[in-house]
Each structure stands twice: as structure tokens, then as C-alpha cells.
Amino acid sequence: MRVQFVLQEIWIGLRRNLTMTVSLVITVAIAMALFGTGLLVRAQVESSKSYWYDKIEVSIFLCAQTSSNPQCNKQDATEQQKQQIKADLEKLPEVAKVEYESKAQAWERFKERFSTTPGFVQSTREGDIPDSFRVRLKDPEKHQTVAQAMLARPGVDQVINEKQILDRFFRILGGLQWAALVIALIQVIAAVLLVGNTVRLSAFNRRRETGIMRLVGASNTYIQMPFILEGAIAGLIGGLFAAGLLVLSKFMLVDRVASQMQFASNLGWGTVVAVTIVSICFGVLLCAIASFLTLRRYLKI
């Protein structure tokens, strides 16, 4: 009988405050979807970092006739300079592997990497990318030592460290993640305020029933439970809608960004399921706790 009474009170409360409940569900769904999207972007960034940082290389581009570096004198690096540069690189303790890449090889790799953007490929011609040495480091953090050893060397045009490029790229993705989380925080605040208003309105509408329950000796927990469960159920429904939005987010945002940016590691469904469960639980707990705190301040029992 007690369970039946609690369920009946929950249904009455949700039905009487239908407009507020729908608003709460929508707000929670948007908040949890944004929160989950931020977590998905973070998971994608961390997964990509762990993949790419193990493959970071320092590219040492050699002088070519098209070089803008004055020390190249519009001349290609000689074979003697190439052999000396390679020998000096192999002697450095920070270097794990040295590979020579010709202009033709660089052009083929460029076409393969940017095959999804044909306009970019068509604007580049074979020979625009000079010969280079691709240097794999034992520790990517020690790229400065290799760069300093190669800069201003005869035959060297420029030294590019891929870690600096990746760091800037991941900072952009990190900014997108924090933007989603900040918007989610604003939505969470709105959800908390809506929960408070919904609970206060529900408690006001049922003040007579609450007074009778107090007179017959009902416990505080028994009186509070329908109101708390109303908020929790609204949070659960909002969380389920957010789960659907997160699935769309994976297809429409995360996977699309991963394909455009050519991430080698795609975000798995296991991560999506884990983030979805966390988002739903967070939405339920948020609404339940907000209901409980509102009752303590408003419902004097």
C-alpha cells in the first residue's frame, strides 16, 4: 500500500506540473547531452594523443631551389651534405630512427594523407615538398636537442617538430571540449532552478495532503519520497533523451571530426556506452539531490 501510495503521488505530481516537468526533461536532456559530448571529445583527444605522441617525428627539410632560406642560395642539398647530416643524426643519443624521404616519396605520402581533400592536393605539385629526413625520437620531449643540432647546418632548410603542431591542434580540440562543458554547466544550473521551482509548486499544490500525513504520524522520509522521486524520474527521462543525442553526437560530430582530421584511433562504442551511463546517472542524481535540498528549505516537516 505504501509503494502504491508513493507511485500515485508521483503520478499526480508529474501530471499537475506537466509543463514544468517537460521543461525540466528538455533542460536535463540538453545539459547531459552537452556534458556527455564534452566527455566524448575528451576521450577522443586522449586516445589520439596516446597514439600520435608515440609516433612523433622531427622533419628536417633539406635545401632546394624553391627554398626561401637565404643560406640555401636557391640550390639543392648535395649528396655529401645529405650523407653528413644523416651520419650526424644517427650519432645523437636522442634519435631512435632516421629515414630519408625524397621529393617523389613525399609527394606520394602527401597525396595519400590528404586523399579526402582533393582540392588541397590539386593545389600542390610534385617537387613542392623538398627532400627531408624523418627522425623518430626515443623521447618526444627532447626534440629541441635535435633541432638545435641541425639548424643552420649546410644543406638544411628548416626543422619542423610535429609535437608542436599536434599540441596546437589538441589545444583547439580541448577548447571545444571545455566550451561544451561550460554550456553544459549553464544548463545544469538552469535544471537545478527548474527542479526547485517544480518541487515547490508540487509541494504547494499538495500542502493539504502533506499536513494530513504529518498529523497521522508519517515520517519525514515517507513524506519527502514522492517529491524526490518526481525529480529523479524527470532526470531519468531527460538522461534517456540525452543518450539518444549522444549517439547522434558520435555519428555527426566525433566520427566526422575523426575522419576529417584523419585520426588513426576511432572512439569505440564501449566509451560511448560508459559516457552515456555516467550522463544518465548524473542527471538522475542531480535532480534527486536538487529536490531533496529544495524540500529541506521549503517543506517544513
UniProtKB/TrEMBL annotation:
Q: How does it sit in the membrane?
A: Multi-pass membrane protein
What keywords sit in the KW lines? Cell cycle, Cell division, Cell membrane, Membrane, Transmembrane, Transmembrane helix
Xref: InterPro entries: ABC3_permease_C, FtsX, FtsX_actino, FtsX_ECD
What's the superkingdom here?
Bacteria
Answer whether the UniProt record assigns the keyword Cytoplasm to this protein: no
Where in the numbering of this chain does the ABC3 transporter permease C-terminal domain appear? 182-300
Provide the protein's localization: Cell membrane
Q: Where is the FtsX extracellular domain?
A: 56-159
Description of how the protein assembles with itself and partners: Forms a membrane-associated complex with FtsE.
Summarize the protein's role.
Part of the ABC transporter FtsEX involved in cellular division.
Q: What is this protein called?
A: Cell division protein FtsX
The organism encoding this protein is Actinomadura keratinilytica
